[in-house]
Amino acid sequence: MRRCFFSTLRFLQHENPLGLPRAGAPPTIPRMQRGLPEKRSLRDVRKVIAVSSAKGGVGKSTIAVNLALCFARQGHRTGILDTDIFGPSVPTLLDLSGEPRLSSQNQLIPLANYGVKSMSMGYLVDEKAPVVWRGLMVMKALQQLLHEVDWGGLDILVLDLPPGTGDVQLTITQQINLDGAVIVSTPQDIALKDTIKGINMFSKVNVAVLGMIQNMSVFTCPHCHQSTHIFGTSGVERECSKLKIDFLGDVPLHAKICDDADRGKPTVVSEPESARAKAFMAIAEAVGRKINLS
Question: Which residues share a beta bridge with 277?
Fold first, then answer.
């Protein structure tokens, strides 16, 4: 295996923004092609799910990583792909860094921790370096992350989608055979309004919505043990009922979930017997049943 060194010059190549050697690589989609590419499955990956929320700041990446860790704890060969080109979170959440190596076929080899394989733009650029790219470069980089990673055989791949309903989401839903999407939101109306836009997007591109997760549902004071619904009560459950979408479960607002994420040891790993970890595990089990993961 060889290390792949990504230079500034390579980043300026619009057809190959990640700077991967082209020999043996799959053919790229012609630049001026206007038709939509045919959907295809990812090589050596059985199931692919997207974790999405059109609203930023609702804890989607933390949930995506914890779900991936749950699948791994269940014995499944699991990977997670961070599709946020501008603000990748997976390297921090999994306490990983360093440049991926290249396989003999010039495919990126994922970095792994806690039994989960991962790939992210965060491994390919300096932690403090901004990705100042226009749309074409972003789409080409995304295509390389989707199609030029050697996962080595997975039972399930979790895609951590960025906020919004734009180019990244459309590229993924139009190019990849998804087994479904998991939608994350907090209970407050301002988050739910954007979340519903995300649900409608998946409906338009014929991707099944597996259900919704209500994050930061309730805060319980560690001193007086009083429970407070800081972001409102049962907002996600109400929307699920209206839209006839399954409610997958609640994840509480708890300081330890944030602390665990920031130090790169997510809750499912750091506190596997806690009520919080069990909430993640129950959601993962529900998702697994929906996509026939077993």
Answer: none
**Which of 192, 175, 174 lies closest to 183, judged by CA?**
192
- Report d(CA 27, CA 91) in Å as an integer: 29
| Tokens 């996509």, located at residue | 291
Q: What is the pLDDT of residues 33-64, one digit of tens each?
A: 545 567 889 999 999 999 998 888 888 999 99
How many other C-beta atoms lie within 10 A of the C-beta of residue 121? 22
Query: 116-120 and 78-82 as β-strands: parallel, antiparallel, unpaired?
Result: parallel
pLDDT of 225 strictly over 80? no
Tell me the residue type at 223: H
Dihedral sign for Cα atoms in the order 273, 151, 144, 17: positive
CB neighbours (10 Å) of residue 83?
24
Beta carbons of 67 and 94 less than 8 angstroms apart: no
- What are 29's strand-pairing partners? none
Using an 8 Å Cβ cutoff, are 110 and 151 in contact? Answer: yes
Please name the residues in contact with 175: beta carbons below 8 A apart, sequence gap of 6 or more: 37, 39, 40, 143, 146
- Count of positions (residues) in the chain: 294
The SS3 call for residue 96 is: coil
The sign of the torsion formed by the CA atoms of 214, 219, 222, 226 equals: negative
- Helix and strand element counts for the chain (H, E): 10, 11
99-123 pLDDT tens trace: 999 999 999 999 999 999 999 999 9
Contact assessment for residue 288 and residue 155, using Cβ atoms and an 8 Å cutoff: no
Number of C-alpha atoms within 13 angstroms, CB side, residue 209?
Answer: 25
E strands present in the chain: 2-3, 45-52, 78-82, 101-102, 111-113, 116-120, 154-160, 180-185, 209-220, 227-228, 247-253
